[in-house]
Every structure is written in structure tokens, then in C-alpha cells.
Amino acid sequence: MPRPDRVLTGERIAVYRHPLAVRLTHWVNALCLLVLITSGLQILNAHPALYWGAGSTFDHPFISFGSGDSAPFPGWITLPSWQDLASGRRWHFFFAWVFVLNGLAYLLYAFASGRVRGVLWPTGTAVRGIGASLRDHLRLNFPRGEAARRYNVLQQLSYLLVLFGLLPLMLLTGLTMSPAVDARVPALLDLFGGRQSARTLHFFTASALVLFFVIHLLAVLAAGPLNEMRSIVTGWFVIRTERVGK
């Protein structure tokens, strides 16, 4: 059952926007992404090149990072900060499964509570207004008043893309890089065109998630970091009722 609004001073009210399950999984996801990105760069430092196709050779990389014997990614952005492939893999694999289980917990909650359909799924009217929403965001003109009670169409579409596009692709390409998984599910190799292609797609998917993460942080800063942080920590988001209809 939705919680009633809290009337604050003046024309400000607090609306309950993020339930506890959403807040908990959000922060676990943030931690997992941080560890996965930094440990993933540690792993990439061990062989800073990407390949394409089952028959790819190490002589002709699809993409190469840096040149010479030095690692292309500095220690301050890798986990651990020194070159240690074994430790990087342990960090990466452990938090990858934490990430998967946390994501499954969120999806179970989102479907069971009706959040996917009621909160994340955009209406036809919202989709038709995506152009106007994009222009407003580029001008840093974010929804106010009653419109700020719910996610806008750009938020909805980006969250759906991450949940049902990028994250499943990240999981499947990660599994395809495992010889043990390939032996049991060889169809994954056919699906992605080989282990090296899966590794390349895994990198591009991770890069897309990093881009989403950066845009998300910038939007939080532009929309009002104190209010946005309050909502994802306590669940309550403050809106100004005088903006309604304006």
C-alpha cells in the first residue's frame, strides 16, 4: 500500500518514492559495479587487447589498449592497485555473483510488487513525449511538482534497457568466457561467435554500464543532489506543490 504524503513547511511535501527493497538493492548494485569495473580493468591490464571471432589470433587484435610493456590503466583505477591478475579475478568473480543475486532479488520484488508495470513501464503518452523530455533534460529542465512523483520516460526507458538488455548480456558474455560453462552449454559459444567475441562484447557492455552510471550521477547533481540522495537513502522525495500546472 502506498504511503501517504508528508506535509512539510510551506508548499513542500514529501512523497515516498523509493521502497526499502529498491534502496537496498540500489546500494548493493553501486558497490558491485565499483568493484566489478576496477577489478575488470585489473584483468584487462593483464592482456590489454580484444579480439573478434572464434578463429581470432593474438597477432591481429580487434582493439588494442596502449603499447609497450606498461599497463594501460593506472593503479588508482584498478583492484588491486598493483598488477595481480589472480586477485583481480577473485574480486571480479565474487562480486559478479553478488551482482547477479542482487539483481534477481530486485527483479522478483519488481514483478511481485507490480513495480515493473506500474513504475518502470512507460505509458503510450509518455513515449510520444520522449522528444520533449529529451530537450528538457538537455536544457537541465527537470520535472517539478506532481510530475516529479514518478520517473520520467527517459528514466523508465534507460532502466528497462539496463535491466532487460545490458545486465543479461553482461551475465551471458561473462559465462561464455568460462571453459567450464562452455563445456556444459556450448550454445553460448555459437550465440556470441566464440569466447574472444564474448570477451569483447563483455567489455562494450561494461562500458555502456559505466556511461549509464556517469550520466546517472550527472543527472543527480543537476536535479538537486540533496533531494535525490535523501530519496535513495530514506525513500522520501520532496516536491513543491506550487509548481503543479506551471
If you had to describe this structure to a student in words, what would you say it looks like?
By secondary structure, the protein is mostly helical. The chain has one domain: Transmembrane di-heme cytochromes, Chain C (Fumarate Reductase Cytochrome B subunit), CATH 1.20.950. Helix content is 61%, strand content 7%. The protein is built from ten helices and five strands, in the order E-E-H-E-E-H-H-H-H-H-H-H-H-H-E. The strands form two sheets. Strands 1-2-5 form a three-stranded antiparallel sheet. A hairpin with a 4-residue loop joins strand 1 and strand 2. Helix 1 packs antiparallel against helix 2 and helix 9 crosses helix 10. The longest helix is centred in the C-terminal third of the chain and has 29 residues. It is elongated, with a radius of gyration of 21 Å. The chain starts with 5 loop residues before the first strand and ends in a 6-residue tail after the last strand. The mean pLDDT is 90.
CATH superfamily: Transmembrane di-heme cytochromes, Chain C
**What are the segments in which pLDDT stays under 50 over at least 5 consecutive residues?**
none
Number of structurally distinct domains: 1
Question: In terms of structural class, how would the helical and strand content be classed?
Answer: mainly alpha
CATH topology: Fumarate Reductase Cytochrome B subunit
Distance linking N and C termini = 29 Å
Largest sheet: 3 strands, antiparallel
The proportion of residues in beta strands is: 5-15%
Q: How many beta-strand elements?
A: 5
Shape: elongated
Can you name the CATH architecture?
Up-down Bundle
Radius of gyration: 21 Å
SSE order, as H and E? EEHEEHHHHHHHHHE
Percent in helix: 55-70%
